[in-house]
Write a structure and sequence with these properties.
mainly alpha
Length: 245
């Protein structure tokens, strides 16, 4: 039987992610304003990679295991590199097409990570105090991630209707992981989730360094403001990391 607390956490996380993504649709934002939003989102991505995914991937493993973990992270990076720079690249590809590929990549990567977060929430909810800390960390990160995804969809000129649908699907990922798949994955070896986390870390690392950062700084306007927003995004993740300790 699913704990009522887990159901409540899942419902609040869903609503927070949905609202975070829909905020960008409240008005027609300028191209430069979207890049400012993206600066904050890039900081969130970097924070997720270096403060959450990489530490979780390497935690509590022997040296030989860490070598395989590192290779899995590299594999995730190369997979996205292949799709972005080799398979989907076209001559004369415009900005909107490039943004579309980035947004799809980010959507898939964040969705996988959200499922894994759902598993963690289900396990943490077995202890009230730990479950609350995990919940606080996830809910703030989820709204920021959804906000970043929605900004990417707008840059790629994705229709409002499709953007709302994708944000709705993304908002369901953590509750789905917590309620629907946690019982199944709980029977798998812990190493399986570790390698899934490592693979996700590689995909996020490429999205952050290979796509978002070049996109944010490819124009000269508001460079210092973009840098400050980038740092602020990382600081938010640092604060959430301490909150979840």
């Amino acid at each position: 039987m699913i704990e009522s607390g887990l159901l409540l956490y899942s419902a609040i996380i869903f609503l927070a992610a949905l609202v975070g993504g829909l905020v960008t649709l409240l008005r027609k934002w300028s191209y430069e304003n979207l890049h400012l939003f993206l600066s904050l989102g890039a900081g969130v991505f970097l924070g997720v990679v270096f403060l959450y995914l990489l530490p979780q991937s390497f935690a509590h493993h022997s040296q030989p295991d860490k070598s395989y973990i590192a290779l899995t992270i590299l594999l995730g990076y190369l997979i996205i590199l292949f799709f972005k720079r080799i398979l989907f690249i076209k001559r004369g590809q415009g900005d909107s097409e490039s943004h579309r590929i980035v947004s799809i990549t980010a959507f898939l990567g964040f969705s996988v990570h959200s499922l894994i977060e759902g598993f963690g929430l289900a396990v943490g909810s077995l202890k009230a105090e730990l479950g609350t800390l995990i919940f606080i960390s996830i809910i703030a990160h989820k709204s920021m991630a959804s906000f970043s995804l929605s900004s990417l969809f707008m840059l790629s000129k994705t229709s409002t209707r499709k953007t709302v649908g994708l944000i709705f699907i993304f908002s369901l990922m953590t509750p789905l992981g917590a309620i629907g798949f946690a019982p199944v994955f709980s029977s798998l070896p812990p190493e399986m989730l570790v390698y899934l986390t490592a693979l996700t870390a590689g995909t996020f690392l490429y999205v952050a360094t290979g796509d978002l950062l070049p996109e944010v700084f490819h124009t000269h306007e508001n460079r210092w403001l973009k840098l400050l927003l980038l740092i602020f995004g990382v600081v938010i993740m640092i604060a959430l990391g301490h909150e979840g300790q």
